[in-house]
Amino acid sequence: xxxxxxxxxxxxxxxxxxxxxxxxxxxxxxxxxxxxxxxxxxxxxxxxxxxxxxxxxxxxxxxxxxxxxxxxxxxxxxxxxxxxxxxxxxxxxxxxxxxxxxxxxxxxxxxxxxxxxxxxxxxxxxxxxxxxxxxxxxxxxxxxxxxxxxxxxxxxxxxxxxxxxxxx
Length: 168
Prior knowledge:
This protein has strands spanning about 35, 40-45, 50, 55-60, 80-90, 95-105, 105-115, 120-130, 135-145, 150, 160-165. By secondary structure, it is an all-beta fold. The protein has one domain (about 30-165): Jelly Rolls, CATH 2.60.120.40.
């Protein structure tokens, strides 16, 4: 394909240009990706790491999130992933909350929050390498109120879990 030198004085930015070639090495996509939330409030016991069972998918581009059995994301493409977890624990009392993201059963990101007497939202996020075959991600929460507490559900924005592949 021949290149034509454009003279600055002859370039009209109002013109439409049709490209008929291809570009190599550009673009990409953020797949696989998913976003899930709770269909209703979810009870977490006191002083116990509890996997949050995000059972409603807003989207799951490649069917890599299990929203009915293991409640985990197992991407089928190797690469770097941005993963996020937000939980809203409702109460009228003081207690500590920890939101944690696990990879293959071990913690990779943990965020504590202290509740001062109202609902407390906790955001946990990180970037992690995934092998595209056996690696998986799960969301856990822990609280120490002394009794069970509810995580707010029934909305994609109250408590949520998601991830997507980063284009590198």
